[in-house]
Amino acid sequence: MSNLPSEPEFEQAYKELASTLENSSLFEQQPEYRKALQIASIPERIIQFRVVWEDDKNQVQVNRGYRVQFNSALGPYKGGLRFHPTVNLSVLKFLGFEQIFKNALTGLNIGGGKGGADFDPKGKSDNEIRKFCVSFMRELSKHIGADTDIPAGDIGVSPREIGWLFGAYKAETKKWEGVLTGKGGSWGGSLIRPEATGYGLVYYVNHMIAHAGQGSFKGKTVAISGSGNVAQYAALKAIELGATVVSLSDSKGSIIGSSISPSEIHAIAALKVKRQSLTELKSAHKYIDGARPWTHVKVDVALPCATQNEVSKEEAEALVNSGARFIAEGSNMGCTQEAIDVFEAHRKSHKDKAIWYAPGKAANAGGVAVSGLEMAQNSQRMSWSSEEVDEKLKGIMEEAFKIGLQTAQKYVKGGEGEFPSLVAGSNIAGFVKVAAAMHAQGDWW
């Protein structure tokens, strides 16, 4: 990758996967997989385009739009669209690369991709955002389809934006098809889709807790970062299962309390719709400006659900020293590599008393899993009940946990009484599944 411009986010994601493969026995047992990794690290296709739109002052504005169609070995490209000023090719390549293996862990036939634009919805009127969505889809519609590439929402792209994007796609192509997931329930969406990433995260961690012999979420204290969909529904499900949630956060700071209630979480959701800060929450909880929660809480479970690299080495050490036992990423690449190293070193040295870390590609796969279920419902022209979707989601998260556990036990040497490395097991399991499909299709041999 030396002939490419610096892509720090993508390079971090690649090195995180590659290092776990190198430190396992996979390449010893099957050395041909080294070539598969080299090939899989290059996207099949990158689409980059300009998005010209008009603001409410009738001034012409322009942004950069992208779609990284990374890997289609297991199925059509699948991954979200992100509208945020930090969006660039490195961020989208990192997200798309992670998406390949996350999607593989769901057991569904979906490939990996990611897209978006450096458009900032904050401070924009509804009319401006709608006009941007129409212009963005005017170009993107040429490259996606129900059996080609099925985007979803991500940061800055809520169900409202999905609706505008879908309407623009339909107008451009004259097709009503399951081309976007996260649609409204009355026009092709799936029940449980908004909740799926947060719910799935909690279901996954519940298996970690049970496997470690620590019971369930009942009676556990949980720190959560973020305040978007993932954080909100992870908090609500954790509370439903008997846990106490003590933090949420946004880009400006964190609220820390002895027990955040469901009604307060619903109030936070209303603030997010209005794009308002947590400082607007009417609450007795302490607000810490400019801080993430990890150094301000003593908890059993930590769930980073905001954005990438939101847990640093120092914050990881603080969680370990506070006695936290489980950490799982609701965000993509929520922990820095240095933080992961802290967790993995503690796992090896403290056996069954260690903190146990789960990567986002496994722990937050619930969102894309239910997107895959939405695709299935669209293909059948039918809708499943929330109970049916929730049961399928629980099954998918259980299998994602088990395959990571079993693969780690197969390929990663561990000491007696040591928890298996879920980051290594999940990386290897997802990679092997994709690489085998690529081999079968002649992508490498």
TrEMBL record:
NAD(+) binds at residues 197, 229. The record marks 154 as: Important for catalysis. GO terms for biological process: glutamate biosynthetic process. It comes from the Eukaryota. Substrate binds at residues 78, 99, 102, 153, 371. PROSITE patterns: GLFV_DEHYDROGENASE. InterPro entries: Aminoacid_DH-like_N_sf, Glu/Leu/Phe/Val/Trp_DH, Glu/Leu/Phe/Val/Trp_DH_C, Glu/Leu/Phe/Val/Trp_DH_dimer, Glu/Leu/Phe/Val_DH_AS, Glu_DH, Glu_Leu_Phe_Val_DH, NAD(P)-bd_dom_sf. Keywords: NAD, NADP, Nucleotide-binding, Oxidoreductase. The active site is at 114 (proton donor). SUPFAM superfamilies: Aminoacid dehydrogenase-like, N-terminal domain, NAD(P)-binding Rossmann-fold domains. It catalyses: L-glutamate + NADP(+) + H2O = 2-oxoglutarate + NH4(+) + NADPH + H(+). SMART domains: ELFV_dehydrog. GO terms for molecular function: glutamate dehydrogenase (NADP+) activity; nucleotide binding. Residues 190-442 form the Glutamate/phenylalanine/leucine/valine/L-tryptophan dehydrogenase C-terminal domain. PANTHER family: NADP-SPECIFIC GLUTAMATE DEHYDROGENASE 1-RELATED. Homohexamer. Belongs to the Glu/Leu/Phe/Val dehydrogenases family. This is Glutamate dehydrogenase. It comes from Lachnellula hyalina.
